[in-house]
Request: fold
Amino acid sequence: MNPLDFTFPLAALLILVFAAGWGVVLSRRFRLSWELWGIGALTFFISQAVHLPFLALVSRLAYPGGPPRGWEPSPAAFFGYAVIVGLLAGLCEEGARYLVLRYWATEARSWRQALMFGAGHGGLEAILVGGLMLVNFLSLLTMRGQDMSAALPSDKLAQVQAFWETPWWAAFLGTWERFWTLPIQVFLAVLVMRAFTQRNSLWLGAAIGWHTLVDAGAVMAVSTWGAVPTEGLVAIFGALSFLGIFLLRETEPLLEEAASPKAQPLERESVPLPPPEATPESLEATRYES
Reply:
């Protein structure tokens, strides 16, 4: 039995657990509606419906012979390509987040709601990645032990064979990446939300910039160091994003309003009444009350 028979499905299922886990924890901890998670998930879908065709168009126009695959022969060309890839992702995803919050989720204007919104965005991405891993694994599993030389080209056949020779631990690289990518997506949602809570569009620019740095850095790192060190870089970005989530925590507007003296209803000042005058009649009326 190949160890991948166990580790690969497990790695994919863990990704699905991470995707749903953020939503479960946030909904219970902050009593948030899953509707906002769904809006965030739909935002990711909308962003990719724009991002992927736009990326293909830019690649076809700017790199008709194919995009550069590494630093050779031109480091400047590869650096520029990595920045373009990261910038397009940042513009499309953060732009979609901003537009959805501006015109759809108009009542979401708090740090907690930003967490749930971002968890939906990153959660759907993780679900698609984990689901695709399972589908690919099942597809490769059906081909194992069969003579596919007549059905597949030689290069595809070599890829199938290379997959089953992959070390067992390599299956968890995707799980590790999704574990750290989810806090990155949540942090980006917090940055975009601040464009509304602080009424400053520079926060949207910060979200686009951070997204560009993360994606461009990953593109350059995988060609420079390989897959494993790149996942280490993703973990650094994820840890910094996790820290940023708490550093940018804001007091809930509703809590501020409730704590404000202006928000409290006016109450009449209670004035103590004088004790009733003791008379023989009053004493006679209260003698049975004790």
In short: Residues 254-269, 285-290 have pLDDT under 50 and may be disordered. Residues 111-143 form the longest helix (33 residues).
